[in-house]
Amino acid sequence: MSTIEFGAEALHERIERFAGRRLLVLGDVMLDHYLWGRCERISPEAPVPVVDVQRESSSLGGAGNVAANLAALGAEPVLVGVMGDDPHAQKMLDAFAERGVDTRALVRDPGRPTTFKTRILAQGQQVVRADWESSADVEGQALHDVLEALAREVPRCEVLLISDYGKGVVTRPVLERAMSLARERGLPVAVDPKESHIDAYRGASILTPNQLEAGYVMGRRIVDEASLMDVGWGLRERLDAECALITRGADGMSLFEKGGRYTHLPTVAREVFDVTGAGDTVVSVIALALAAGASYPEACYLANHAAGVVIREVGTASCSLAQLRASLMDGFA
């Protein structure tokens, strides 16, 4: 196992280079909606809790949350994805505008709904979730428009970031076009993968599955150090990737690099309220750090600190530059 020493000065230099980096985010955009309240009784109509709603909120999810994370860190994300032609789409566009995310490459498809998820929470705990979505592959005019957007935008970016939630945007034709364009220009490709598409990511620079996803793909649960090694090295080799990063919750992160170097990064989180969207933060910071010239271990170290910030909040959240700097300072204190 590698015992890489990370210098505070070098890491701070990396994050100072985040500003203005242009990254293409390809993936499934969605809007997360929250109803917050209290539960003190069971319904007389059915054995279900009754939540007295006190407030509601919404946030960007999926590839939209990835783009929001990048914008919060000073980058210039270009978002390629598909949404419906409905009120949820407009609400999502308004949220992107507030965060400075470039949405000119987002495609509207009137034949499918904007992915919209409502979570009802009582005393801070999720009670139920209701989803409006279509997971059918994007096709027809919408597919044509996505491919055209990729051809236009990838050459203008420094990194290709794929956020695959299995909602029909990241199909094989779309992946092949995106990764081919990135290879032609020597761009790093960072992937937050979906298990069902795993072999289509072959040749990516870095993949960031969690341990359940990685174990499922390789047909072996990660339960100890031996199974972790088998799954991590096996996944990297299977996809001929430069490296595979397996996120492991409270056990931190494990990085497997092509040259045979293994690096373990212990978690830096002191409090965990909600891991929703933590994977979005990890892949966004890794991609941005690579654009800023970081090595893979440096990029993952920075992502580890950013993830430690966002899981302190309920719901999807972003890590700002100030929060990342503060976490790094605590880590080197």
Core attributes:
333 residues, alpha/beta, UDP-N-acetylmuramoyl-L-alanine:D-glutamate ligase, eight-stranded mixed sheet, four-stranded mixed sheet, 10 helices, 37% helix, globular
Helices and strands in order:
Elements: H1 8-16, E1 22-27, E2 29-42, E3 49-62, H2 63-72, E4 76-80, E5 82-83, H3 87-99, E6 107-108, E7 116-122, E8 125-132, H4 140-153, E9 159-163, H5 172-184, E10 189-192, E11 206-207, H6 211-218, H7 225-239, E12 243-247, E13 253-257, E14 262-265, H8 278-291, H9 296-310, H10 321-331
Parallel strand pairs: 1-4, 1-9, 2-7, 5-6, 9-10, 10-11, 11-12
Antiparallel strand pairs: 2-3, 7-8, 12-13, 13-14
Helix pairs in contact: 1-10, 2-8, 4-5, 6-7, 8-9, 9-10
How would you describe this protein?
This protein has helices at residues 8-16, 63-72, 87-99, 140-153, 172-184, 211-218, 225-239, 278-291, 296-310, 321-331, and strands at residues 22-27, 29-42, 49-62, 76-80, 82-83, 107-108, 116-122, 125-132, 159-163, 189-192, 206-207, 243-247, 253-257, 262-265. By secondary structure, it is α/β, with parallel strands linked by helices. The chain has one domain (8-29, 61-114, 137-331): Ribokinase (UDP-N-acetylmuramoyl-L-alanine:D-glutamate ligase). Strand 12 (243-247) and strand 13 form a beta hairpin. Helix 4 (140-153) runs parallel beside helix 5, helix 6 (211-218) packs across helix 7 (225-239) and helix 9 (296-310) crosses helix 10.
